[in-house]
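Worked Example 4.2. Consider the chain below.
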Amino acid sequence: MIKSLSPATGLLRRLFPLPPEQRDAAENWVTYGSRTPRAARRASSVVLIRDSPNGVETYLGYRKGGSPLGSVAFPGGSLEIDDEEGIPWYGPSLSDWSKRLGILDQRLVRAHIVCAIRELFEETGVLLAGTDELSVIENCVNEDWMTVREAVAGQDKNFIDVLTKRGLGLRTDLLRPLSHWISPNFALRRFDTRYFAAALPVRQEPSLLQGKGQWAGWLVASEILGARDTHVLGDSVGAIDTVGLPLSMITTPAVEVILEKIASTRGTVAYLSVRRELKSYHPELVRVGEDFFLDVTTTTAAEGGGGGRGR
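Applying the procedure from the previous section yields the following structure tokens:
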């Protein structure tokens, strides 16, 4: 990774190496000249975190097929039509969330938040929902809940119907907005993604979706970054597009930057308590010699009172 720091502004310009599977698209973009980018699908992703003796941990999983979220990424996915439907809602109002996200269309605001909670449930079984503003459902790990997860993921059941029939509403107050990332223009698959953070609820534990998940686990953010130039994580995942590759080659700049912010905090409560200015990032493709990089400018401020340096 190539870095260039501006002490006067506290901004850090960084060039992230381009993953191998994106090189052909980058070559074509440069060879044939810039053209209209493909439409970016709106998406949401949730950074699930918890404290551990070794530092703050986050839950990462493997996504096959060259996902715009990265081969190794946080739970997430694209918005669905049903995500715009009304649902019992605990926490900040849609108007408040609209201000937090900088989105005027409140239907879109609701869709992003419902999508975030739905995708987290589908991929991990963690459900940010309760019967009122003080409760959170517990123990969503039995066979019945797995069947529900499979049905929602396969679009055989409507997520909102599942919750309302059980008298549950979304605990949107458990989410914190983090950042906004738009896939680079040259990419063949593009997402316009809103990232959120949430602490693991008491008496819930994530698990792979039966029949679809390949690898996922809790990892200490600082340890991932400490080994970022090795292929330890890629080998642990064990997929054809991760083995033998360093962190930047198996994920996206969004994931790396968020991991750095998590590593810079002193704990889960501190991280979730930070008042953030919601920033938007749109990595640009640059060529240095024969190599391609993604150009991203971030800040060097730590988040959550940590002594380490954030990005």
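The radius of gyration is 19 Å. The longest strand covers residues 40-50. Compare this with Example 4.1 before moving on.
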